[in-house]
Amino acid sequence: MIDPVDHRNDREDSNVIGVPLTPQAQATLERHRAWMQQAIALAAEAGSRGEIPVGAIVVNEQNEAIATGVNRRETDGDPTAHAEIVALRAAGRALGSWRLDRCTLYVTLEPCLMCAGAIVMARLGLLVYGADDLKAGAVRSIVNLPDCAASNHAVPTIGGILGAPCRELLQRWFQERRRSS
Ligand SMILES: [Zn+2]
Fold first, then answer.
1. I need a surface site. Which of 35, 71, 109, 123 has the fewest CB within 10 A?
2. Rounded mean pLDDT of 104-118?
3. Cβ of 148: how many Cβ atoms within 10 Å?
């Protein structure tokens, strides 16, 4: 799932052209990192219960969390119970609306085909993810579902927020699982 030598996720910290961020851009980046840190904590907790550690949080326009989700495939015996799907469903229930165009979804791993599809269907306002998924990523890495002809909604997307810790959490989890099997 994750290539251990890939460092594309480190790009948020590499200021290659040496231009400092504006204070406003810096504040936005810090806000994204703070939510991603919480998504990582959710993911780690799911990992300790035997689920692949992926965590997601939906935040509203007032920068308040309205829903969270973790991977629950094993727990629920549900092939669709990815963190993003769980969080999007909970957000829809919280808002009483399927339309999440004023919401931001934070997720520790680049969404797969199914989740990218759900994100388009929800008309999500902003997607922020951590690690690229070089095997199955459907937002940028393998395919770009939100930008394909069948998609009726372009999804503003920021990738690589705390990419390295998101990736390391997954790598560690898979390593530990290989060791114990
Ligand atoms: Zn998914």
1. 123
2. 98
3. 11
* Residue 51 among the catalytic residues: no
CB neighbours of 88 closer than 8 A, spacing ≥ 6?
Answer: 58, 67, 69, 100, 105, 118, 119, 122, 124
- Asked if the model's pLDDT at residue 124 lies above 70, the reply is yes
> Which residues have CB less than 5 Å away from ligand 1 (the ion)?
82, 112, 114-115
**DSSP strand pairing (157-158 vs 65-70):** unpaired
Rg (CA), the chain: 16
Distance 121 CA to ligand 1 centre (A): 14
How far apart are alpha carbons 3 and 126 in whole angstroms? 26
Q: Is the pLDDT of residue 121 over 70?
A: yes
Yes or no: say if 36 and 56 are a contact pair by the CB < 8 Å rule. no
The sheet with strand 157-158 has its strands ordered as 65-70, 55-59, 104-109, 126-131, 157-158
Could you tell me the distance, in angstroms and rounded to a whole number, from the CA of residue 64 to the centre of ligand 1?
23
Catalytic residue, from 45, 51, 74, 84: name it. Answer: 84
- Cα 132 to its chain centre, rounded Å, is 9
